[in-house]
Amino acid sequence: MLTSEPPYRDPAVLSAIEPGDVTAAPPDVSQEIRPLTNHSSPGHSKPRKAFPVLGIDYTHVRIPFEISLWILLACLMKLGFHVIPSVSNIVPESCLLIVVGLLVGGLIKGVGESPPILKSDIFFLFLLPPIILDAGYFLPLRQFTENLGTILIFAVVGTLWNAFFLGGLMYAVCQISGTGLNHIGLLANLLFGSIISAVDPVAVLAVFEEIHINELLHILVFGESLLNDAVTVVLYHLFEEYANFDQVTVTDIVLGFLSFFVVSLGGVFVGVVYGVIAAFTSRFTSHIRVIEPLFVFLYSYMAYLSAELFHLSGIMALIASGVVMRPYVEANISHKSHTTIKYFLKMWSSVSETLIFIFLGVSTVAGQHYWNWTFVISTLIFCLIARVLGVLGLTWFINKFRIVKLTPKDQFIIAYGGLRGAIAFSLGYLLDYEHFGMRDMFLTAIITVIFFTVFVQGMTIRPLVDLLAVKKKQETKRSINEEIHTQFLDHLLTGIEDICGHYGHHHWKDKLNRFNKKYMKKCLIAGERSKEPQLIAFYHKMEMKQAIELVESGGLGKIPSAISTVSMQNINPKALPVERILPALSKDKEEEIRKILRNNLQKTRQRLRSYNRHTLVADPYEEAWNQMLLRRQKARQLEQKMNNFLTVPSHKLDSPTMSRARIGSDPLAYEPKSDSENLPIITIDPASPQSPESVDLVNEELKGMSRLPPSPEEEEEEGLVMHVKESSSPGTDDVFTPGAGDSPSNQRMMRCLSDPGPRPAPEEGEPFIPKGQ
Amino acid sequence: MGSRASTLLRDEEIEEIKKETGFSHSQITRLYSRFTSLDKGENGTLREDQVNFRGFMRTLAHFRPIEDNEKSKDQNGPEPLNSRSNKLHFAFRLYDLDKDDKISRDELLQVLRMMVGVNISDEQLGSIADRTIQEADQDGDSAISFTEFVKVLEKVDVEQKMSIRFLH
């Protein structure tokens, strides 16, 4: 399947495997069986020979074997690049992979075999969809819709401009006598222009992901590369059909125009239909969680294939289905399926991307080339010029309508980020020789442009981004504050737009949300979640993430004291009035707390007991988390009652039950340490942008806790607050001592979560029992 | 409709509004006609709260997009109504119902309750509110002051979010 085959095959997009290869297999199989039955058919031609203990039958496994070898090569390459980080800082991965492909291709050629070429079928049917699905499923919808107008203009008008400008100029160049290119007609040139003018999503993704540019630019270039597929498809088919006729009539142009709408909107429609079906299916999968991810993948792939079936834009179908199904599917499926989907998509798209670049390299070596200096150089130059002019012109036009204008720096990055990639190559490869004798020259030029953009532009974009001080992506996750306030502003703006009578962005978004809530969610989301507002879903997700981190970091098992159950509220901390005391516990409270502790501690290290793939035990961590939520609520109530006690608390160490409980829960010996230098002190700044997923709730420093005022005014359920404290005063004891007034007594919350968890080395190995400090 | 509106709005008024809010002449007249169409009682104010046209314009001025030429102007005069800080202040004031320059837990709860509807329990909402305050609060007063509010929203593109493209 990966062998090079005679190039003048009809572009049969739907045939993936050549029939010849498949039929090679069965005769071998039958030959294998024959020796065994040889003695029963004496008249057989094969002479009796000894029973083969060991035999080699390569042809039998050849195809899967070679495919696996290629994929393994791709993965090893990826691995290699990350083991040697110095190179990958300068050179983007895509370049390295192409070089590897060149080397491998050269090697194969040197051995005497003919190296495989990236066949268009394989590319379009197997290598491209995972990448696009990954991009579509995880598309940042908010930025995408906010900039949709800009993206569409860049994608449609920009690509058209590129294609015609380039095609026209190339035709002019071809007309120049002496270049030997006179035989290439206008339409052939326009076809060439349309092939090469499309910005390639694979290349853009590969390069832009590494430079971490700010989200606006990323979504602009990336969105453009996705949406220009419709334009490319239409132009390609249009010119391919008519390239051999001398002229194109007006009806053809009108039909082409119409077909653009059909292709793009049809593709989106197909995608939406499949997306809705997928969402609906996921509503019923609560009993068979194992195959949930498969539905997502299959429906999306079917959307792609169905769109390709009708010559609609498969990429847009794939994106549309991913976007439509995602909110509903995520509300329906289990957490594990969600993780599965995420990782499978990332895995497949990553492998695909690697394979594509390697094959580009190999195909360069393997293919037949026809180098014509004029053609290639002028293609390159005009490509760049067309892109720059297009971006400049369109931005001037778009800025009239944008609220946040695109600065010249932005424009430069957009123009510079217009990389061409494997789609152009595959489209060029699809041309057949009968109609396009100059196919080799086209391919050579395409490959040159691809190499130039990927190598030169890909390598230099990172230093340029740094040089121009373009805003980078901020690596933080969304805080709940941002979520609340953004939604609040959404509502506010919708109202203001209503007042002004202005049907803007927010108005339509609000309408869509209402429609969604009223009809779609009821149908497509199972059970109770259908009524869950977005804010609550976001909050749940955040809590779940933190809880899982908490459990994974083992913090749950190492909670030594009662207050830590209360301090589990660190995950959901509440504001605390500055003055605070934690009173002593009466006997029955201690009993309750110990019970809670016991239940907590038991649940942490459960392993999945079921090996049967038909029964998947509910995730013990999820179970534990749900129980923890319940317990937290109980503990909260418990603490509320405790607040009412104003007795002087006893020293933590004194309480025998506490120390017993603590020591009992911790295998390491408990020793109060006097100094704290080697204790990791990780203060948490709640609004800090530097705190990503990892829950660094390790050593919180509480502001001084003192007596709770008896007045009822502040009597709400309060938790323990974590403050950033710079001053560290040793010698203050743990939570139980009354802080005289405030600051000098910094109570350190070193109990719960003193295992730093995901943080790297230096903190590990520290005994995570809080020391009397 | 246009001519009728402009006769009710004197030119000096238009000039004043223009200076105060930064809207252009045509925008002001268009918004005035909108105001009059909203003003069913024809008494020059919206609702019983007596929001007159000046107040209307002043509020809407917060939502004017920030233009590039304004960004470069130095602070030689009072800060324009549509600066980022003023936009945020407007939003802040909507939260802060008792006008004590702080968003307390109750005020936050009220806003949250309005946003999520009736299906969510008080306790859950309370924990969200607590979490929100805890995230934002830096001086430990368990309320969100304006500076904390600004800091929390520093990553949000307020200039784009809180702007409406008023047609020229």
From TrEMBL, chain A:
Residues 587-614 form a coiled coil. Residues 24-45, 705-773 are annotated as: Disordered. It comes from the Eukaryota. It is a multi-pass membrane protein. Pfam families: Na_H_Exchanger, NEXCaM_BD. Its main location: membrane. InterPro entries: Cation/H_exchanger_CPA1, Cation/H_exchanger_TM, NaH_exchanger, NHE-1-like, NHE_CaM-bd. GO terms for biological process: cardiac muscle cell differentiation; cellular response to acidic pH; cellular response to epinephrine stimulus; intracellular sodium ion homeostasis; positive regulation of calcineurin-NFAT signaling cascade; positive regulation of cardiac muscle hypertrophy; positive regulation of the force of heart contraction; positive regulation of transcription by RNA polymerase II. Residues 563-647 form the Sodium/hydrogen exchanger regulatory region domain. It is found in: Basolateral cell membrane. One of its GO terms (cellular component) is membrane raft. The chain crosses the membrane at residues 67-84, 90-110, 122-139, 151-174, 186-208, 253-280, 310-329, 350-371, 377-399, 411-430, 442-465. Keywords: Antiport, Calmodulin-binding, Cell membrane, Coiled coil, Glycoprotein, Ion transport, Lipoprotein, Membrane, Palmitate, Phosphoprotein, Sodium, Sodium transport, Transmembrane, Transmembrane helix, Transport, Ubl conjugation. This is Sodium/hydrogen exchanger. It comes from Pelodiscus sinensis (Chinese softshell turtle). The gene is SLC9A1.
